[in-house]
Amino acid sequence: MTDDNETRVRHRFVGLYVLLLGLLGANMAGTLIDAGGLAIPIRLSVAAVMVVVIATSFMRLRQSSALVQVVAVMSLLWIMFLFVLTFADFLTR
Amino acid sequence: MNYLNAGYGLKSWLLTLDHKRVAWLYFISITGFFFLGGAAATLVRLELITPAGDLLSSDAYNQMFSLHGIVMVWFFLIPSIPATMGNFLLPLMLGARDMAFPRLNLMSWYVFILGGAFTLTAVIAGGIDTGWTFYTPYSTMFSNGAVLAAATGVFIVGFSSILTGINFIVTTHKMRAPGLTWFRLPLFVWAQYATSLIMVLATPVLSITLVLLGVERAFGIGIFDPALGGDPILFEHLFWFYSHPAVYIMLLPAMGVVSEAIACFAHKRIFGYKVMAFSILAIALFGFLVWGHHMFVSGQSIYAGVAFSLLSFLVSVPSALKIFNWLATLYKGHIRFDAPMLFALSFIGLFLIGGLTGVFVATLALDIQMHDTYFVVAHFHYIMVGGMVSAYMAGLHFWWPKITGRLYPEMWARVSAIIVFAGFNLTFFPQFILGWAGMPRRYHAYAEEFQLLNVFSSAGAGMLAVGYLLPLLYLIWSLRYGARAGGNPWDARGLEWTVASPPPKENFATVPRVDSEAYAYDTPQ
Amino acid sequence: MTRPNNQTTVIVAHQFETLEQQFDADLLGMWLFLVTEALLFSGAFLALAVYYHQYYDTFSAAARELHWLLAGFNSVILLTSGLAVALAEQAADQHRRRLTLWWLSATIALGVAFLGLKGYEYYMEYRAGLVPFLDQPFAFSGPDPHNAMLFYNFYFAITGLHALHMIIGLMVLLVMLVLTYRWREGARVARQVRIAGLYWAFVDIVWVLVYCSLYLLGR
């Protein structure tokens, strides 16, 4: 890897870090505005974007092998099973 | 020079990194747990000979069935085949020198023993009377037993199965010999792989559930406490998210063993190999979507109940496919009735009955009647004892020559297989009728009219005890006096039969190259 | 796997054929372990979500008592430590020992700072009488104090579990610091640091979700 490339990667990490701070700030500032019923979905979505940024870049999921990517997606799928089927009960009581 | 005489002394065993020796550590410890759980079952069946609760007090009886369930489920059935035969055979079947993480493998045994120590402490420190399920709020607020120690033991043993699962998955992905493609793998490996996936995906949810239960019990940090508005049914959801898939942790490896034995003793290629492989994965997947069928009478929403009931029927499709494929493998095979085959055939018959009665209890309306009766007890014993333990015995006999280098006495083994089959049916078939007639489970006394069938059942339990003690005696006997086994006494196929018995310490002198499928019974080895 | 053994034989563990195979196995093992961690936390989050669904008003009143700005600042600290560990991984990749040591130390320092602030936050909650267990007086002034207790139980259980993971992560990073200091084999250290960094990033992810669900959702 050349020095140039090295700096580029470092800048990318710093850029994404700034993005994460921005998202965190936006989510915190969002609590000052009354967004009504949209508040919860918005806050969860911003947090989800932060999670995706950390997972794909800081954990290098994008550069990882297909197998590792499948493993990561699998955890989401199983968490979804847990939530969807449990709420199938609690939402229909 | 083989793995058994590669080193002597306690230290060479307790600090071994050889997967074959780790398998032995598990063999010895789970055999201990099996007979401990069996002793508790014996007391339960002795109590139930008479309608009056005379032999054990109701408290002692509750402790006995809890001990039986906890030890058998968490310390025998769940580790059983993966931790023993899986550990021993997986690298051999993959053509690898060891697991991907040998240290982790040894560590998972120590973790297992630590968990066992906690649970035994619980038993000594005042018994556990919650049943194996630790349902709240009884376990958190009312039970006087040593719930915390028992739950800690189960929590710890969960780590052991997580570590084993991770190790198996990585080993299967990364350690296959050149040419050993996925569809050349023995079905035993597929079964271990799917089981490991369940261990990795389900066990952590049990861990957090037990942590929450533990902090509630120990520090009063109420999570499921109804006084704070907590919901005990939430505990059941979290618990069964693990514990239903756990049934397939017990069953899938058993299916793997049976596939190997049936193919070998019918001397035929397994019928519908790919269907078999995919149905293993399908069972593992569907197993995660059906947990609510344990909660039909718990107060969960009726709509959720309907959905869980329908999803539960899905599991029967791949399960039935497997049964048909085993039967098709037998068709026109050159069948030999050696002991492993007898155990494997018992598995098919008993699993079939267990599976079909499973459809009964998965039916929402019918389960309202059947729930918490002996019908359910009989159903899951047909799956776990009739199915899983029979397969464990089949595998133990099948690979015994490979593991020890000695043949077991064939005649005694056949006698044991027949006693176990007869004793099992005598024990548990009457329980279907008892449950149908409405006898509830978990009581030490019962109505007079149930006595005859209960006496049958207890007599069958006696036969079962003989059937399981016999192998303990003749297998130990064979370690010293059994005839020497060659590398491949059954004329079986598969990489594990190409090495000497017992296998050398490094398994393979050179990494083998594989150019055929696992069940090439039509070509001479 | 088909490749013959080359000069790396010395450091490849006996069960593997090549260093690449060993690294792939380690990486996959770590990811599978993180899957189990994710499912562990998801159980607790599921329980929290169910109770949010049932007692949203009480939970959101209870959440307002938490020190959300302090915890927000703590989030910044943790995200910064996440950047530091990523840069440590990069430095190790470049076989730059001193730079790796520096970034690893920065990560550890930030992690310790996070735990310190978290401890201070717990202390303030203890002073305010918001600890509903261990026979502490519960001084929550909002509606429905019983259900509010449930919220604080979750708050302490989930943040406590996260803090436990932080401590484990810090110990892993300390080991990495020692391994980097010794610098036995560049390629090996780089891979070990990368695998350790995965765990730290995961702890970061969990905190992002903890902060959102406990501090922000109720506001």
Automatic annotation (TrEMBL), chain C:
The keyword Glycosyltransferase is annotated on this UniProt entry: no
Pfam families: COX3 (PF00510)
Entries under InterPro entries matching the protein: Cyt_c/ubiquinol_Oxase_su3, Cyt_c_oxidase-like_su3, Cyt_c_oxidase_su3-like_sf, Cyt_c_oxidase_su3_a-hlx
Heme-copper oxidase subunit III family profile domain: residues covered: 28-219
TM annotation in the entry: 31-54, 66-87, 99-117, 154-181, 193-217
Subcellular location: Cell membrane; Membrane
Keyword entries, A-Z: Membrane, Transmembrane, Transmembrane helix
Membrane topology reported for the UniProt record: Multi-pass membrane protein
The organism's place on the tree of life at top rank: Bacteria
UniProt record similarity statement: Belongs to the cytochrome c oxidase subunit 3 family.
Protein name, per record: Cytochrome c oxidase subunit III
